[in-house]
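Below is how a single chain appears once it has passed through the pipeline. First comes the sequence as given, then the structure the pipeline wrote out for it. We keep one example in the README because the format questions we get most often are answered faster by looking than by reading.
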Amino acid sequence: MLPKILSQIFPILMLLSMLIGGSRSISAMDKKMQQVHKSITKQFSGVDHLSHSEFNELETEYTIVFDVREKTEFEVSHLANAIQVDPEITTEDFLQQYQEQIGDKTVVFYCSVGQRSSELAERVDEVLNEKEFIEVYNLAGGLFEWHNNGLPMVNDNGETQLIHPYNRKWGKLINNEDSIHYQ
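Resulting structure:
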C-alpha cells in the first residue's frame, strides 16, 4: 500500500520541488527587478525563463545565446559567445539567418531586463516548435540581473564590468552606478 501511495505522490513532490527551486532563484532578485520580471512573465506567459544559475548549468556546446539589444549596447558588454540580434528583426529574417546555427541546440535569448528578448523568444518558439522540439528560453532579469550578481561579461577588449543602461529609467535597475557606460 505504501509503495503505491509513494509512486502516486512522487511526481507531485518532484513538480513542487522544481517550482520552489525556480521561485528561489527569482526571489533572489531585488524588489524592483522582481516587479519587472513579474510584468514580463505575465505579458509573455508562453515563454520559459531561466535564472542565471540555471543558465550556467547548460552545456555550452549544446546552447546558442542571442543578445537582443542594440549594437551599441552589445559593444559595451555582453555574455561570452552571444550573438547580437537586432531587436526589430522579423521572425522570418531571424530564422533565415540563424536556423542552421541553431540546429537542435537549446536557444537562450536575453536583453537588458527581458522585455525585448521575451518578445523575440515567443515569436521564434512558436515557429521552431511547429517543426521540431527545440528548447527556447529567456534569461530571467536579462543582462542587468546578470551584472547585479557580479557574473562575467565581455566586450571586444575582454572581460568587463561595464554595462549599457538602455536609458536613464531602466538604468536605475543596475545596482552599481559606476559601471554604467554608454559607449
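DSSP finds eight helices and seven strands in the chain.

See the next section for the split statistics.
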